[in-house]
Amino acid sequence: MISISKKPILTLSIVTIIFIVISEIIYTILTREIVDADINMVHREIETTDKLIFNGFLGQFFRMKHFGVLNLLIIPFLIKDVLNYKKQKQWEKAFLFLYLTILALIGIKGFFNPRYSLTIFPVSTVYLFYSIWSLTHSSTLKSYTKSVPYFLLFISIFYFSKEIFLLKFNDSFYKEHLTNQKYSGINNGTKIKWKQSKTSSLKALKMAIINSHLPDYKHNSKFYLDYPKYSQLKIFDFIKENHLKNEKRIMTNNLPSIYYYTNVNALYYWSGDDLIFDNNGQYPLFKNRNNQEVKRFLTDSMNVGYIYTYEPYNKYFDEFHSFLEEECDLIEQNYSTYQLFKIKEDKQ
């Protein structure tokens, strides 16, 4: 058995409790619900300034909803290594320089999506355990380092139990059916609202095993019944059939899923910056053009007849939103408000 004196045990116990309390406070603040926020920013967890900074630019350390508390533990080691940079070994200096550079690049360019931070997560994990291993071999803290494994074990048990057994808030959508939809091509629309519900991972796992709710409209009969009304797959089916008929092209508003589910060579557009991306580079669609000129450019020059978009994206650019309302008909919309518009034909 490892012999540990009472003082280090007491110290590590206090440190453990303080760490859990601080991490839980940070998690609660950075996952709080913001009323009437941009639903796309809510989904990315960056709808406020503090969330943008900590979940976005510093998401590698503070996006605990995705990474847990492992990366939060890195912060004191990283600060120590930066302050003692000149004393580091040559390979440690090189690693630290590259690690900080990659963190900066991911934070600046990939802050809006946790999947970019995930690319460096394995490296961060190795860095953390190497730092802990170095700490346990430190002669200056020898009386305390023997209890470090117990600290890590308790932290692991606590957060594993929290993740599996405790009730937690999950973000989810619910829909309201509306009439008199403002878009001219549809009478009945769907309004999406945001809410939080209490559940647990254990319950979700049990429900998945027992009920086998697979989103497969070809094999799940209940889903098949809802498929014509709600499924995004119906939009993809239309796009594929339209492509086979050699009809007008589709313009997609920052929705690359069209390339995953169809073989259609769609024109790529992003309303947030009003930019078209194609073989000629990137250039604005609405700049120095009114709605009629945009319509002629899309239909005549680009052979575009349909626009595949997501309702929250439409409002990022007033001109694009106006164009959809005035020059297009909404022909398909699923429960998550992915929409397919048809550009109106000019009356002869």
Task: Give a verbal description of the structure.
The chain is an alpha+beta fold and 348 residues long. The protein has 2 domains: 6-164, no CATH class; 173-343, no CATH class. 53% of the residues lie in helices and 17% in strands. It has 18 helices and 9 strands. It has helices at 6-30, 39-44, 49-57, 59-62, 64-67, 74-83, 90-109, 114-118, 121-136, 142-145, 148-164, 201-211, 221-230, 232-244, 257-261, 291-301, 311-314, 318-327, and strands at 168-179, 188-199, 249-253, 267-270, 275-278, 281-284, 304-310, 328-333, 338-343. It has a 7-stranded mixed β-sheet with strand order 6-5-4-3-7-9-8, with helices on both faces. Helix 15 (257-261) links the parallel strand 3 and strand 4. It is elongated, with a radius of gyration of 26 Å. The N and C termini lie far apart (91 Å).
Quick summary of this structure?
By secondary structure, the chain is an alpha+beta fold.
Order of helices and strands: HHHHHHHHHHHEEHHHEHEEEHEHHEE
Q: How would you name the oligomeric state of the polypeptide chains in this document?
A: single chain
Overall body shape: elongated
Helix content: 40-55%
Give me the number of helical elements: 18
The count of β-strands is 9
Structural class: alpha+beta
Distance between the termini: 91 Å
Can you list the strand order of the major beta sheet?
6-5-4-3-7-9-8
Question: What's the structural domain tally?
Answer: 2
**Uncertain regions: pLDDT < 50 for 5+ in a row?**
171-192, 212-230
Strand-residue proportion: 15-25%
Radius of gyration: 26 Å
Q: Biggest sheet, open or closed, and with what strands and sense?
A: 7 strands, mixed
